[in-house]
Amino acid sequence: MKNKILTTVSIIMIFVPWTILPLRMFDWALQSPTAEIMISCYAAFMIFSGIFTITSYIKAKVQNNMMKVCLIVNSLYGIFGVVVLGQIVGNGIAM
Fold this sequence. Notes:
The chain is mainly alpha-helical. The chain has helices at residues 2-15, 20-23, 32-58, 65-94. The protein is 79% helix and 0% strand. It is elongated, with a radius of gyration of 15 Å. It starts with a helix and ends with a helix.
């Protein structure tokens, strides 16, 4: 039962970052402070989902085929989230 719950949570975490696309259609989401906050929150979630999936795969031993797919996708999301946050922090320090 634990394996199914952790796999389901990891699957849901794959699709959550894509919800930024409909939000970015609004004018308020493109303005400066809102855009940085929204992107930072999504990047933090992507990092969390990568860590969660890696932890579930290694420590909880949830190693089915769907979890392997989630591990790859959420790990890439996590790496991308670290890069995005690094760029945001780097631009903030440079100013």
